[in-house]
Write a structure and sequence with these properties.
Strand order of the largest sheet: 1-2
Oligomer: single chain
Helix content: 55-70%
Number of helices: 5
Order of helices and strands: HHHEEHEEH
Number of strands: 4
């Protein structure tokens, strides 16, 4: 009796383990199939996209080759006319974009200012003539700059730099300034010593 009970218990235990193992195996197999399904679906999606791209390229090339063929257009007029309308609309959009870019460039040029090379007046980028001297803008940009007006007051005799009131030396070249004449003198040569005769 006892042995029969033990055997039955072992059989039940083995049957339970077989059921668990079978369930695990089925779950693993299902998970593997699910992963494979995902991979295959992703590959199908890539193939569809590649085919659509190739079909679009083929369609565009065939459209260009056949758009003027009356026989091939027969029965497909709506498709050909629709594509032509899209092309015309795109061309109009591109024209509008070009106009906007040109307007932006013109505004930027008009906002820029420069100095007239003839008279030194400030000019706007959109000005056609200088308001100071009437020179055309193109010439005002490229002309040789006008020389600076001569400085008022005393200047250095050596370099022509303007001298300030009370300056003892030129700030441009360092020459000593002659206060009475308002011009610089070169002090690199030492003054001649009086001769013996002059002293006598």
């Amino acid at each position: 009796m006892g042995n029969r009970y033990v055997i039955n218990r072992k059989g039940e235990h083995m049957g339970f383990m077989d059921n668990v193992t079978s369930a695990v195996n089925r779950g693993t197999a299902a998970a593997g199939r699910s992963a494979d399904r995902i991979k295959i679906n992703a590959r199908v999606g890539e193939i569809v996209k590649r085919r659509q791209s190739l079909a679009a390229q083929l369609g565009a090339s065939l459209y260009e080759a056949t758009k003027d063929d009356v026989a091939l257009r027969a029965g497909r007029e709506a498709l050909y006319d629709g594509i032509a309308a899209c092309d015309a609309e795109r061309a109009e959009c591109e024209r509008q974009l070009a106009a906007l870019e040109a307007a932006a460039a013109a505004e930027a040029q008009a906002a820029a200012t420069f100095t007239c090379a003839v008279c030194g007046a400030r000019m706007g980028g959109g000005d056609l003539f200088c308001s100071g001297c009437g020179t055309p803008a193109e010439k005002a940009r490229t002309a040789v700059p006008v020389a600076a007006p001569a400085a008022a007051g005393p200047v250095c005799a050596q370099c022509g730099a303007p001298l300030g009131e009370g300056d003892l030396f030129c700030m441009g070249c360092g020459a000593r300034v002659q206060q009475d004449a308002g011009a610089a003198v070169d002090d690199t040569v030492a003054p001649t010593a009086p001769s013996e005769e002059g002293r006598a």
